[in-house]
Amino acid sequence: MSDRYQGFVSSPIGKPLAKFVGLPNPTRLERWTEGSPLVTGTVLTGGVGRLAHDLPATLGELGIGSATTPVDGETYKALVFDATGITESSGLVALQEFFTPLMRRLDRCPRVVVLGTTPESVAGSERVAQRALEGFTRSLGKEIGRGGTVQLVHVSPGAEGAIASTLAFLLSPKSAYVSGQVVRIGATGTTTAEPVADWGRPLEGKVALVTGASRGIGEQIARVLHRDGATVVGLDVPQAASELQALARELDGDHLVLDITAKDAPQRIAHHLRTEHGGVDVVVHNAGITRDKKLANMGTDRWESVIAVNLTAPERITRTLLDEGVVHANGRIVGVASIAGIAGNLGQTNYATSKAGVIGLVDSLADEVGDGITVNAVAPGFIITDMTAAVPFATREVGQRLNAMSQGGLPVDVAETIAWYANPASTAVNGNVVRVCGQMMLGA
User: How far apart are CA 360 and CA 367, in angstroms?
Assistant: First the structure.
């Protein structure tokens, strides 16, 4: 589904008209294609902290070219600033001194990453300064323009060697629609990272379960995880069986047809994964439904069905897979929440409740699981799918423009974020909820 508005304002007729009227003219986002380098261009690093010294080597291992000193006349694809050395508020001026001279020297669709220390791991003036970084990055995300993104990565002490997978994602076009986010590394669980033999296929030999896999976002999740080397087990309801089977054949994977709200669904899923695949490495709870009505007009059936599919089923399935030891060591559990679960949405009290509950599931399990298993969630904003195509035109246009990028995202944007979580090197990325929303203007 294409963005007709974006096509119009980029056309020879629409471009001057949009400029004259003052309409937003969204930049066409760069997205990663298989075989391309992670970063096309140079990453400039700076700052004085516990991460700065090793940054060039870490980027080099990922095949990313970097420099530590700006050269007159050169432009840069990305900027990475180590702010872990800022221990009091007066030191925050280092942000302005580094970034201000470089903001007009960025290439199209640039990336900015600020590295800080998890505020809860420090105290006093240092905690104040580190917490202040969030305001800087969120604001810069709304200024950067030209399809750029800005992120803050809090790295806990001891997790310095676990940042490679996160930098690979945030500096590349894989994070095209992720901006203004705060990622925590090593804050919960382990602070180490598992080695990756092949960064091009990090999921080689892994098994991934994707619910709601037959179409839309779920289909793209299955495709991206397969691209990264995983054997994908797609799951969907009987009504979607033919599409699901076709996808499984195309991806040389497996499929499971059942209703995840059935009483015996968790046990059936666990049995299939154990007997057919010897367990599972990645579990993606993507299946979801909407039954929108204002609360004053909502029947019990609408409420209960949404909660059952979107929240109760993922919780029951996850606990069964964990309790029965079906999830392998260094496994991944990923929930698909929604911006509605963070900011709320008119006529979606049931849906927003269920998606906020998915975030609660992350909070509940992240501290509970061990053995290198991580629990994270994505929270999509306006993603262009067949479902959103049915939204009334005016509502759809407003929904697509209320973010820093003035456009909707694509299902692959959600899938790429999940693939970053799924990467074996993301062991220290635990308990995060990352919004895939182009930095929506509403919500925290």
Answer: 12
CATH topology of domain 19-32+39-185: Rossmann fold (3.40.50)
Threshold 0.90, pTM exceeds: yes
- List b or e across 26-56, with b for residues whose CB sees 16 or more CB atoms inside 10 angstroms: bbebbbbeeeeebbebbbbbbbebebbeebb
Q: How confident is the model at residue 397 (pLDDT cuts 50, 70, 90)?
A: confident
Q: Which residue numbers are catalytic?
A: 351
> Greatest CA separation found in the chain?
65
Tokens of 200: 């091009």
Domain boundaries 207-436, CATH class: alpha beta
Torsion of CA 404, 409, 414, 416, to 10 degrees: -90
Which runs of E-coded beta strand occur in 200-303? Answer: 207-211, 231-236, 254-257, 280-285
- Check residue 443 and give its pLDDT: 58
Q: Where in the chain is the domain with CATH 3.40.50.720?
A: 19-32+39-185, 207-436
Structure-block tokens of residue 85: 């050395």
What per-residue string of b and e applies to 321-345 under the rule 16 or more CB within 10 Å gives b? Answer: bbeeebbbebbbbbbbbbbbbbbbb
* CB 1, CB 82: distance < 8 Å: no
- Distance, in Å, from the CA atom of 283 to the CA atom of 267, rounded to the nearest integer, reads 15
- SS3 state at 400: helix
Q: In whole angstroms, give the CA distance from residue 16 to residue 21.
A: 9
Rounded to whole angstroms, the Cα distance separating 34 from 3 reads 23
- Six token digits for residue 120: 């809860």
pLDDT digits (tens, 9 = 90+) for 161-213: 999 999 999 999 999 999 999 999 999 989 999 999 999 999 999 999 999 99
Report d(CA 179, CA 307) in Å as an integer: 29
